[in-house]
Amino acid sequence: MGLSHSGNYSCEVRTETASVRKRSALVTVTVRRIPVSGVSLAAQPPGGQVTEGDRLVLGCSVAAGTGPLSFSWHRQGSAAPLATGPRYELRAAQHRDGGRYHCTATNGDTTADSPPLWVTIL
């Protein structure tokens, strides 16, 4: 079900010859989005420690929430997102890339942040 399925519904039954026809009372159905919650961040390699020049991949997921879902990536409290989407990749991590990262997930109605992950570049 999606938000577009909200509306008034009724049921109708009739005999094969359509000589008798009955209709139920109208029922209003309102479809709401499930709030986004349980946002988590996973790192590859695990723990967020990577050698300089190696690849680091961060993934963001939600435990609950109906969409469409959007994701953004943030480092050390910067207001502007680093990137969007459920995955963020540093192909060749540099020392300047180290710091505290988190992802934000939203479905347009609710927004939730992951716990922060400290990324260390060795």
UniProtKB/TrEMBL annotation:
GO terms for biological process: cell surface receptor signaling pathway; immune response. InterPro entries: Ig-like_dom, Ig-like_dom_sf, Ig-like_fold, Ig_Fc_receptor, Ig_sub, Ig_sub2. One of its GO terms (cellular component) is external side of plasma membrane. Gene3D superfamilies: Immunoglobulins. Residues 35-120 form the Ig-like domain. The keyword NAD does not apply. Keywords: Disulfide bond, Receptor, Signal. The keyword rRNA-binding does not apply. GO terms for molecular function: transmembrane signaling receptor activity. Pfam families: Ig_2 (PF13895). PANTHER family: FC RECEPTOR-LIKE PROTEIN 4, IMMUNOGLOBULIN FC RECEPTOR. This is Fc receptor-like protein 3. It comes from Eudyptula minor (Little blue penguin). The lineage of its organism: Eukaryota, Metazoa, Chordata, Craniata, Vertebrata.
